[in-house]
Amino acid sequence: MTVRNRAELWLLSCTLIWGGTFVIVKLGLDDISPLLFITVRFAIATLVFLPFVLPVMKSMTTGTLLRGSILGILLSIGFITQTVGMQHTTASKSAFITGLLVVFTPIFQIVIERRLPRLGNLLGIVLVLVGLFLLTSPEGSSFTTGDALTLVCAAVFGLYIVYLDVFARSDDFRHLTILQFVVALVSAGVGLWLFEEPRFVLSAFTAWALGYLAILATVVTLVVQTRYQKDTSPTRAAVIFSIEPVFAAILAYLVLGEEIGLMGIAGGAIVIAGLLVSELWDRPLPGSAD
After folding, report:
1. Of 11, 62, 104, 274, which sees the most CB atoms within 10 A?
2. H-run or E-run covering 11
3. Does residue 210 form part of some domain?
4. Overall domain count for the chain
């Protein structure tokens, strides 16, 4: 197994975990307000990860502090717009719009890294877009404020993926990870203080949801993404992450009763086909130096 294949399997494992977060957040917002939700999530993540990074804290440079803070700001904006937007849209539709990061990522990759995606990546993106549209069956539904916020989230996450590719090549992934957690915690906390009337109802589900989101969907996945994404391209990573709405839609159907239908099943199959095309067709674009 090549280094890239191994990295992409790790990223796929992150995608499986993230797929469950849409239903969990949708249900959790009944008991906890969105900015408080994010604040507590990243507070737990910071406390859990801190013992692993303390031994190397002294080697953190000013440059690393700046780069980690940039990633943390992008991560904060992405999570805040997605979570607040979730109050005004369905879990499956939120997953679909978030999946549009597969469009934004190659654009940012070209602009920032001057790096063209491969032909298979672009064909995979087209298949993924068709599949995501069919999967979430968005026809007939209006474009809401929640959808607009989630679209901002998709663009920001696309930018985040590219900058993570750039920064992770020169910095210790532990430094970048803890900085992202701390910046996201502070950003959400400031937003909570300025804009939100906190609401928190402690229940067994709320405690379980925060544990899943903080430990599995934040600590584990961001450590893995920060460590391994640099071993593949941003566009390939984005195509892998596009599997997330497939799992989200399945869980939304099973838990929330959101319909999938035959078109949705076909859409999920097309998304997977797009992933396979992107993964297996490695031909560079004409004129590309890659």
Report:
1. 274
2. helix 3-19
3. yes
4. 1
Q: How big is the chain, counted in residues?
A: 290
Question: Which letter, b or e, does each residue of 21-51 get, where b requires 16 or more Cβ atoms within 10 Å of its Cβ?
Answer: bbbbbbebbeebbbbbbbbbbbbbbbebbee
In a domain, 290, yes or no: no
The dihedral formed by the CA atoms of 98, 92, 180 and 169, expressed in degrees to the nearest 10 = -50
The range of the structural domain enclosing residue 88 comes to 3-280
Tokens standing for residue 273: 């086909």
Q: Burial letters for 218-234: b for 16+ Cβ neighbours within 10 Å, e otherwise?
A: bbbbbbbbbbbbbbbbb
pLDDT in tens, 157-201: 999 999 999 999 889 999 999 999 999 999 999 999 999 999 999
Beta-carbon count within 10 A of 198 CB: 12
Using CA atoms, how far apart are residues 214 and 21, in angstroms rounded to an integer? 11
CA angle 282, 284, 290 (to 5 degrees): 110
286 located within any domain: no
Work out the burial of residue 135: count CB atoms within 10 Å of its CB; fewer than 13 is exposed, 13-18 middle, 19 or more buried. buried
CA distance 65 to 176: 8
Report whether pLDDT(4) > 70: yes
